[in-house]
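Hypothesis: this fold can be encoded by more than one sequence.
Test: take the C-alpha cells below, design a sequence, compare later.
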C-alpha cells in the first residue's frame, strides 16, 4: 500500500480564457489515496489521464476498464463516468482537461473510440513528459496560456502518432476506406449527406463500408456521422449565439425537430436544455 506521505496532488485550473479554439480547463499530477473515487458524474470538457503507477478502474457507458501504468483514459463532455484508485495499489496519474471549437477534431484523431476509451501507450515516458510540460507552463499570464495550449497540441500530436501506429498498415484497403470516409464526413457533415453518399465517395458498397467501420472504428458509419454532427452542434452551442434552428442547419439537419430528437438521443437532453445548462454555468 502507498505510504500516506506519498499521497499528493498538484493541479492548476484556468479561471478564464479568451481562446475559443482550444482552451485548457485544468491539468496536474496526483498520487491518489487508496480507493479514491470520482463520480459517477459528468465533465463539461474533454479529460485525458495517463496512469504512471499503481492501478485503478475506469467506468463509462456501463463498461469497466481496469487500468495500469502506461494506460490513458478519455472522458468526453457530458459522459457519465466513474474512476477509482485501487484499494491496495492506488494509482498515480497526470491529466489534462480541455475544450474548444477544435477539441473534437483533435480527439477524433487520437487513439480512442467510443467502444474503447482507453489506450495502452507505446511510449508512455514521452506522453508523460508532454503532459508535465503543460502543467509546468501554467500561469495566469497570456503567454502562459499560449505556452500551455502549444504543449497541449504537442501532447495531442503524440497521441495522433500513436493512433496512426495502431491503425492497420497503409496498404490495408480497409483502413484507407475508413480514413477517406472520415475525411469526407469532416468536410461534408454540414451538407445533406447520407451513408450512400459516403460509400460512393470512397468507392465501396454501403455494406462493405459498414463492415470496415465496425472493425476499425467500433461503430457504424451513420452513428459516426450522427455523433460527429452532434459534437459540432455542442461546440456551436458553446461558442456562438446561433439559434437551435440555425445550428441544426449548420451541422446538416434541415428539420429542427428531427435534430432535437437526435440530439436528445445522443446527449440525453434536448439542445434547448443543453444550451440553458451552458448559460447557467457562465452566469
Amino acid at each position: 500500500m502507498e505510504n500516506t506521505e506519498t499521497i499528493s496532488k498538484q493541479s492548476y485550473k484556468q479561471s478564464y480564457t479568451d481562446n475559443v479554439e482550444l482552451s485548457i480547463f485544468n491539468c496536474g499530477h496526483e498520487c491518489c489515496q487508496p480507493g479514491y473515487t470520482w463520480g459517477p458524474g459528468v465533465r463539461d470538457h474533454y479529460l485525458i489521464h495517463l496512469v504512471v503507477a499503481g492501478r485503478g478502474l475506469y467506468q463509462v457507458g456501463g463498461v469497466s476498464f481496469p487500468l495500469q501504468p502506461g494506460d490513458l483514459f478519455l472522458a468526453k463532455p457530458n459522459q457519465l463516468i466513474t474512476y477509482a484508485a485501487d484499494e491496495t495499489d492506488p494509482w498515480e496519474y497526470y491529466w489534462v482537461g480541455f475544450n474548444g471549437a477544435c477539441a473534437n477534431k483533435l480527439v477524433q484523431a487520437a487513439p480512442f473510440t467510443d467502444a474503447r476509451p482507453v489506450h495502452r501507450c507505446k511510449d508512455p515516458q514521452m506522453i508523460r513528459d508532454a503532459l508535465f510540460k503543460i502543467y509546468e507552463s501554467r500561469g495566469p499570464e497570456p503567454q502562459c496560456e499560449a505556452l500551455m495550449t502549444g504543449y497541449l497540441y504537442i501532447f495531442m500530436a503524440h497521441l495522433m502518432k500513436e493512433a496512426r501506429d495502431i491503425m492497420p498498415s497503409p496498404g490495408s484497403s480497409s483502413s484507407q476506406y475508413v480514413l477517406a470516409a472520415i475525411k469526407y464526413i469532416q468536410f461534408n457533415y454540414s451538407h445533406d449527406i447520407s451513408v450512400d453518399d459516403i460509400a460512393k465517395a470512397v468507392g465501396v458498397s454501403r455494406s462493405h463500408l459498414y463492415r470496415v467501420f465496425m472493425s476499425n472504428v467500433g461503430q457504424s458509419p451513420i452513428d459516426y456521422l450522427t455523433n460527429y454532427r452532434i459534437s459540432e452542434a455542442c461546440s456551436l452551442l458553446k461558442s456562438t449565439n446561433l439559434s437551435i434552428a440555425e445550428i441544426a442547419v449548420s451541422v446538416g439537419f434541415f428539420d429542427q425537430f428531427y435534430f432535437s430528437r437526435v440530439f436528445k438521443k445522443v446527449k440525453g437532453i434536448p439542445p434547448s436544455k443543453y444550451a440553458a445548462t451552458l448559460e447557467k454555468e457562465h452566469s
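Residues 1-5 have pLDDT under 50 and may be disordered. The longest helix spans residues 142-166.
Hypothesis status: open.
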